[in-house]
Design a protein that fits this description.
heterodimer; A: mainly alpha; B: mainly alpha; 10 helices; globular
């Protein structure tokens, strides 16, 4: 395409499609566009396009919430541990009934259901997570035997052995709707 | 990604540091809410953590692939929101100044708010094309790959988006041209 075939309307449409910077212009059209851009009409069109880009830059995204990356990392790590011993973690959740919300105070965060662990994580992590879950169960049992009043509603029926109840819950089938 | 596949948390944290801004830029432009953008960024990165094998280096640059994951997550979220409740407070947040700065003039804040509102009013695919082109600096060819469409369709999307923005922001752009 030569200079004669480039008019203001076409130049404007091309700048709208490719942006105002010549490096983004199609190679075949660049000479004709650069020639047109040197004229008064071309300069005015480019100035308007540059103003739009500047306005968009002024309205760019605000920075992420403080601690977002740490929260994501914690969620990833927590899920990895939970995935290593799903039944034990599930049992702990049923007893603790804690919230799994991980987004830090963003006002629109959702309670996050736990999901499967990193599918390529080494097997040694399963062992570590299993030990972690076992220690969690032991801690819960100690708490129960110590008579924590906040867990009264979650205690097994009187007369039953709390540890046996925990073990029974640990052996129960996964609740897939809760775990995935 | 290989390190992340082995469960390397430091590698995962490094990947988040490098790419968080870009993922959030897409999320924020598409969803119009910093809180929703944080939430979706968390979803995107956790998806990578749990399924690092999703990325195939033979299919292109990681940044373009990640932009595609983020874009699809946004479109899925918007689709889900359309079928259920609207994003809580998203429009109000879009119109509000995300980072009130005492030194930021009222005029500039007002202009930024109008720009954000004009972008928010664009159709989803036009908004996405603007985010990928303007905020992330992808070429039209890359945007076509990310959006699973032709380069011509991207040019059309960008052309229509920029034309609408120029029409809606006529006064703001005139002021920008004078100051520039």
């Amino acid at each position: 395409m030569n200079k004669e075939q480039m008019d203001a309307q076409r130049f404007c449409a091309l700048v709208e499609a490719h942006g105002h910077h010549p490096r983004h212009w199609p190679e075949k059209l660049r000479p004709a566009m650069e020639a047109f851009a040197a004229g008064g009409e071309g300069r005015a069109i480019l100035a308007r396009a540059a103003a739009l880009d500047a306005a968009l830059a002024d309205a760019a995204a605000p920075p992420p919430s403080a601690g977002l990356e740490e929260a994501i990392l914690a969620a990833a790590t927590g899920r990895q541990d939970a995935g290593a011993s799903r039944k034990a973690a599930h049992t702990a959740r049923r007893i603790a009934a804690g919230s799994r919300r991980v987004a830090p105070g963003n006002g629109a965060g959702r309670a996050r259901p736990p999901v499967a662990a990193n599918d390529n994580a080494p097997a040694s992590r399963w062992l570590a997570a299993g030990l972690l879950a076992a220690s969690l169960l032991a801690g819960v049992w100690l708490g129960l035997s110590g008579g924590l009043s906040t867990l009264d509603g979650l205690l097994p029926p009187s007369g039953s052995d709390p540890l046996a109840e925990i073990v029974r819950l640990a052996a129960a089938p996964d609740d897939e709707g809760d775990l995935l | 990604m290989a390190a992340i596949g082995r469960g390397d948390q430091q590698a995962f944290a490094g990947l988040m540091r490098r790419h968080m801004e870009r993922v959030r830029a897409i999320d924020w432009r598409m969803l119009g809410s910093a809180a929703a953008a944080d939430d979706l960024a968390q979803d995107v990165f956790l998806r990578i953590w749990h399924r690092p094998g999703m990325y195939d280096p033979k299919k292109g640059r990681f940044s373009a692939w990640l932009a595609k994951v983020a874009a699809n997550a946004c479109l899925d979220r918007l689709r889900a929101e359309r079928n259920h409740a609207p994003l809580h407070g998203a429009l109000e947040e879009t119109l509000a100044d995300p980072a009130p700065d005492p030194e930021h003039s009222a005029l500039a804040a007002d202009r930024a708010r109008r720009v954000r509102a004009a972008i928010a009013a664009l159709p989803e695919r036009q908004k996405l094309a603007i985010a990928l082109s303007h905020d992330l600096g992808h070429t039209n060819i890359e945007i076509a790959e990310i959006m699973d469409t032709s380069v011509e369709a991207v040019e059309s999307l960008l052309g229509r988006a920029r034309r609408k923005l120029k029409e809606r922001l006529h006064a703001e752009l005139a002021a920008e041209e004078k100051s520039g």
